[in-house]
Amino acid sequence: MELSHVENLAVVTTGNVDIAHAHSVLVVAGGTVTISHLNNPVGEGEEHDSVPKIDSLVMAGKGLDIAFCGGAVVLSGGPQEISWAFDSVFLRQPAEGQRCRFLKDGKLQPVQAGTIPPPEPDPPKPKEPPLTDLPKDAVVIARGVYEPKRPDKIVTVKVADVGHPIILVLSAYEKVEWVVEPDSKARLAAVVVTGYEKGSVKGVPTGVPTRTSFYGAGDESYAYSYERSDCGELDALVQATTGRPLDPKAFWGEYSLSEFTVP
């Protein structure tokens, strides 16, 4: 079961549950539960002195993966992976090797306001080398979405001939499986995929280099509208990867899409 933005909802199923954003929910699943943002907790590093308020209950039979968790009681019968938590109570100790970044002294502590220690920094991951052999006349064309419209998370990108080689930049907040369908005359010089959640790309012709980045790998360079403030970070990523700036006239985005054509 896949849900996007839910509030004041009870979900009971024997299968798996995947929710992008949830607030004030009861989730009981016999399988695994994956939630991106639960109860919209405050951001990492912000002051947080409020009285804990429990708004949600999540029970997962086989496993649990929550990126940001606030104001919840959580119980998992399987592996637990929690990136950041506030004002929550976790009823089960994690097994050895499971990643809960708010662990203290090796034990999962009941969470109270203001008591979460900062997570240990992830070890640095090797960065892919920049693309240095791109055609001199290649142009950057960027497209962005906040979320895919289709439940299978596929967004189809039809690429037409623009008279120059194309450096195609695909950016999203939520996970997207980009499917590139270039015209027979279109010339792709490179494809750069970036997002908050890790995406993937298919259909890139053999020999065309690709680069993928996402928040979990230490990159925060994603945007779905050039007017957004985070577009400056995307521009920095594009320049670092390709040596070309991101032209505002070459960037276009929508909140939700299933297909679009370049240009």
- Binned, the helix content reads under 10%
Proportion of strand residues:
35-45%
Biggest sheet overview: 8 strands, parallel
- State the end-to-end CA separation: 35 Å
Structural Rg: 20 Å
Quaternary organisation of the protein chains: single chain
Average per-residue pLDDT, rounded, comes to 80
Structural class by sheet pairing and helices: mainly beta
Describe the structure.
It is elongated, with a radius of gyration of 20 Å. The protein is mostly beta strands and 263 residues long. It has one helix spanning 231-242; strands at 2-13, 17-29, 32-38, 56-60, 63-70, 72-76, 80-86, 89-90, 139-148, 154-159, 166-172, 177-182, 188-195, 200-202, 210-214, 251-257, 259-262. Residues 41-52, 96-108 and 110-119 have low confidence and may be disordered. The strands form 3 sheets. Strands 1, 2, 3, 4, 5, 6, 7 and 8 form an 8-stranded parallel β-sheet that branches. It contains 1 helix and 17 strands. Helices cover 5% and strands 44% of the residues.
